[in-house]
Design goal:
- The protein has 184 residues and is an alpha+beta fold.
- The protein has one domain: Lipocalin, CATH 2.40.128.
- The chain has helices spanning 2-18, 25-37, 47-60, 77-87, 132-139, 144-149; strands at 64-68, 89-95, 98-103, 114-122, 125-130, 152-161, 164-169, 174-180.
- An 8-stranded antiparallel beta barrel has the order 1-2-3-4-5-6-7-8.
- A hairpin with a 4-residue loop joins β7 and β8.
Amino acid sequence: MTKIIHLVPILMGSMIWSTPTPASEPYDELVQARAKIIGTSKLVPGQQVWRQQNHEKFMSQIEGIWISANEIDLSTESVFHQTCRDLGFTFHKLNDYSFEMFLPAKPPFRKDEIHSEYIFKDGFLYNIRNDIEQQFKVFGKTQGPKVLRNANSVSALIALGPNTMLEIDFDYGTPTLWGRCPSG
């Protein structure tokens, strides 16, 4: 009888380990990330087709007011709405391959407006052009090296959903999390 009692935990343990388990956590995480970033958990139709489809979907969702969530307090929704009013960037589609990011002048926050043009390069990549004369007005002539360094750059833009996107600046290696502001 004593031998049987000792065998019970061993038998129970072997039953637990031999029971089929659902998909693993690493697999689930990979499938979710692929669906979020690539846009599907299925095999993509080919890189060229995927790049064009991704770009078209991205451009169809770009219009609106967006805020950078990197440097704001998101502890309350009212702060979010206030930030949208005071510091919102307007993203405006210019054509099928480019859009403008415009930050209007809003004293006392900013006395001058800021414009950047994003031009589709490939996949998630966009070339960015900044108007250096306008940048000198915003940042001053003393910031010349910084203004000139940022005259042209490249970023990856990844839609995380219809209201959030991640921008990775390749010049500085920094991410910016963008959130869409409610309309109206």
